[in-house]
Amino acid sequence: MNVIQQATAEGRPTFGVWSAAPSQPTAEVLGRSGIDWVLLDLQHGAGTEADLLPLIQAIELGGSSALVRVGWSDPRLIMRVLDMGAIGVVVPMVSTPEQALIAAQAMRYPPLGKRSFGPIRRFYDPASGEAPVTCVLMIETAEGLANLDAIVSTPGVDAILVGPVDLALDLGLGLDVTGSNPDLLAATDQVIAACQRHGRIPGGVAMSPKNAQVLLDRGMRFLTIGSDAGYIAKGIGADVAQARAWAASATTASNGSTATNGSTATAPAAS
């Protein structure tokens, strides 16, 4: 079993982080963070298919596991990602059970699916006759929400990840980067309930630590809690603000000292 399957069997959630920068040192740092998995983003990230193998190896060197989000339900890319060593694939914008089946079958060897056998890295468990991979589908459209039960119950699907921003946009709720819109949370609850009905893992994208707690309390068991770009921006932003505050304080103190020294130098001599 991989880390997600092991955690699910033990009744506990898993946590991941998005990685959009094709940097091996950064991937290794993320892998060393103690996070359960790192999600390499080929849909919106700067990396390409050619970057995958060294990035996955760097994450593994750090002690974590790699998931990959592909750009679409593309069997060729899904199979290649798994051959490179990813423990699972995240497929975005799944709106129909037909799309769900294409993705799920690309991740399973016959007779359970249509994955081609390629002995490259992590590929096959002779004991079980199956590769320990996790199929994660994203619900990000109103159509996907309408077809929820059919998608979730598709054979070979392991987890459903709510894409809150795209789902909010498609539901006409506007751009919501907080994940707190009541109608969006209601849609999220629908996904969680469907996962519970069909024995799948419900997942979400936490927009903040507080949002992560909200999602966990609602029943999510597969959560991203941040991103490489977000952590860099947050860290440097806080340090720059602190440095500027110190600079302002030092300037004020320096100006005060100059003013004092100046007044002493120009004061009239005592008679």
What order do the helices and strands come in, and which of them pair?
Blueprint: H1 3-9, E1 14-19, H2 24-31, E2 37-41, H3 52-62, E3 65-69, H4 75-83, E4 88-91, H5 97-106, E5 134-139, H6 142-146, H7 148-152, E6 159-162, H8 164-170, H9 182-198, E7 201-205, H10 209-218, E8 222-227, H11 228-266
Parallel strand pairs: 1-2, 1-8, 2-3, 3-4, 4-5, 5-6, 6-7, 7-8
In words, what does this structure look like?
This protein is α/β, with parallel strands linked by helices. It has one domain: Alpha-Beta Barrel (TIM Barrel), CATH 3.20.20.60. It has helices at residues 3-9, 24-31, 52-62, 75-83, 97-106, 142-146, 148-152, 164-170, 182-198, 209-218, 228-266; strands spanning 14-19, 37-41, 65-69, 88-91, 134-139, 159-162, 201-205, 222-227. It has an eight-stranded parallel beta barrel with strand order 1-2-3-4-5-6-7-8, surrounded by eight helices. The longest helix has 39 residues, at 228-266. The radius of gyration is 25 Å and the shape is globular.
